[in-house]
Amino acid sequence: MMEGTEELLMSLGKALFETFEMVGISTIAALSFGVPLGLILFVTSQGLFFENKTVNKVGGVIVNIIRSVPFVILLVLVLPFTEILVGTTIGPLAASFPLSIAAIAFYGRLAEGAFREIDKGVIEASIASGAKPRLIIREVLLIEALPGLLNALTITIISLIGYSAMAGIVGGGGVGDLAIRFGYYRYQTGIMLITVTVLVLLVQGTQALGDKFSRRFDRR
Amino acid sequence: MIKLDKVSVEFHGKLEAFKAVREVSLVIEKSEIFGIVGTSGAGKSTLLRTINLLQRPTCGEIWIDHNNITNYTGEELRQLRLKLGMIFQGFNLIKGKTVSQNIEFALKAWGVEKDERDERVKELLALVGLPDKGEAYPLQLSGGQKQRVGIARAIANDPDILLCDEATSALDLESTEAIVQLLKEINKKLGITIVFISHELEVIKALCHRVGVMSQGKLVEVGEVFDIFASPQDDFTKQLVSKSTNVMIPKEVKLMTHGKLISLKYKGDQTLEPVISSAAKNFKVDLNILHGNIQYINGKPLGALIIGIQGIEEEANKAISYLKNQVQELEVIYDGRNRGAINELRQSVV
Fold it and tell me: What ipTM is given for this predicted complex?
């Protein structure tokens, strides 16, 4: 066990804050860029109003490449870009960059799936009504996909909490990192149990909150 | 006016092309309710969807009010669609929006200002008979109510044409009747041309002025609804309408009959009652109406009767000959005295 409870609480508090920082930044990135990415993949697919095989294929391949690279490797792979963008390669802010890339690809693919779930007839009816694509995207696609998008967001955030544990490699910190450093490397089973419990609670809470929001907007 | 000129639609499968619509030519007049009927897979929906180019024809031309729209794209096509309402079998309402917001969507597509939109939505809700459902979500509505919202959305921008794709096929009888009434009302009030696709003959009969019959991608017959039902020309049409115009009697009735049974059909201009009574008077036979069905299509009666004839053979045959000249169609369906000779008898009557 760690010497003082106070010290443990402080470490844990700091780690929690770091986790929130990393997950928060990458979630915002996932929302800002993943939704448009999923939308592009969807509306350029066959039979839709911006059907474009090239864009769809290229987009799909890029997403797949990012998603197939194990996160630890992605983390190291983008270090040079992290340096340019953030100015440093260590700390939670630096870890947020590779996390954001993974989050965008992950959420983009899930968002595409959420758009695909929309009843084709509803989209057809809106096309038949003479609405511009912009109006259809804003008032039909985004609204009909909302419950699915929220579910996908929950899954993404939970995955990000998991990924962020690996951010320790670049000194990102966070709850997962705490578990690995003290619990795994230093055999402090007590701390490992505590941090893992915190992680379980975090994931549970996220899932419950996500489900609640998704239900709130689900009118299917 | 809608004019289809030799419109064909082919779908290209992996191995072979499938011709869903084959060289259909058709003129639909302004303000008429035109039905297209046929079995499922006949190409009705595909044909309908070429009118607003949701389905592009493989060849042929589509004209709306003297404009060839076949190759419309982009903004031109969008402007055209604003003037072409459409309703669907599955209603296709936006589930995440209220009834009012669904109708408002069509108005936004047209570019109507907010104040005007609110007012127009109220007007439309009243017109389709849902004045207090504006805040409800589609999930909370019955099928009939959903289709009313669909209609309100489709006519929000005062279209010239309303396309209906199996619009009543997912509804129960009562809702179907109500929707038919509403469409008739809209046609009368607003003068909108309605093109109505359905496999339900009863709906076509109750709603349409003219009808086209489709079979295997081809338009086999076009005419006034009454004529199509009263005197179909094409074999497919005959078979299709027979289900709705024929009357059947239970076989128990046949077995109990000593005389002959005839079935006859008559239509609007053939007044039947004096014919039957004069047949009974002029020949020594007893006539007994066992079963009958008279329906009115666009105000004209179309009837089918099953009549039992009793009397000596010669008189009965004379009565049948006489009746045959007075009605549109007559058939001896049963001969109680000579079961084997039904066919022979049929010939002697001719």
Answer: 0.85
